[in-house]
Design the sequence.
């Protein structure tokens, strides 16, 4: 598969959506789909779909369309590599951390949750989705032994500020960050996915308040 030197972030962010729709189509027994049909589902244009796929060498033939299972498998390789799961830790065992750990543990999304860390002594020693909760003081020894490369931050902003440098020093290469602190600015060499639930909610509010009838 020929991949262009640098694929833009918007294209990368569309890949999971393609994969999700193709998974549903496969379950429904759909064997082939055109770029126009896929574009309609994605809310974009056929030209955009073809441009996206051309970043990876293209997956279909002009005028023939795409085989759903083949396209899903190819995008799956882009998203999940050879199937080896990324070793992951989670910081913050509160309500948000519990919800996020449940999502990581039950979905085949390419990650393995190794451990959860928290400062609350009432939580330490318990389990979250079958994964032990450790005291934050054991973070360094745990990382030295298990070598996680992804950290999920479900902590307040200041805690993320205080912890992020230490986590990078301990070998963390990527953050799934719910802390409202933009780590990508502080650590440009690390891969960061900042998740702002409030932004999504405000966007919804804007669209509801500013919808005009055509």
Sequence:
């Amino acid at each position: 598969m020929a991949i262009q030197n640098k694929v833009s972030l918007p294209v990368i962010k569309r890949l999971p959506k393609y994969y999700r729709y193709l998974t549903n189509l496969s379950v429904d027994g759909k064997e082939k789909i055109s770029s126009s049909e896929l574009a309609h589902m994605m809310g974009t244009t056929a030209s955009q779909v073809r441009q996206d796929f051309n970043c990876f060498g293209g997956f279909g033939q002009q005028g023939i369309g795409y085989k759903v299972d083949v396209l899903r498998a190819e995008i799956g390789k882009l998203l999940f590599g050879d199937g080896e799961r990324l070793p992951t830790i989670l910081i913050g065992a509160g309500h948000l951390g519990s919800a996020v750990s449940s999502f990581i543990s039950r979905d085949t999304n390419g990650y393995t949750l190794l451990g959860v860390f928290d400062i609350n002594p009432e939580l330490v020693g318990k389990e979250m989705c079958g994964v032990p909760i450790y005291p934050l003081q054991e973070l360094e020894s745990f990382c030295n032994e298990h070598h996680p490369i992804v950290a999920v931050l479900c902590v307040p902003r200041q805690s993320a500020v205080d912890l992020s440098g230490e986590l990078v020093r301990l070998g963390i290469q990527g953050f799934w960050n719910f802390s409202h602190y933009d780590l990508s600015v502080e650590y440009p060499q690390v891969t960061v996915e900042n998740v702002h639930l409030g932004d999504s909610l405000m966007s919804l509010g804007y669209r509801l308040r500013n919808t005009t009838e055509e």
Remarks:
- The mean pLDDT is 90.
- The first strand starts at residue 32 and ends at 33.
- The CA atoms of residues 65 and 188 lie 39 Å apart.
- Strands lie at 32-33, 66-67, 86-91, 111-118, 127-128, 131-135, 150-153, 174-177, 191-194.
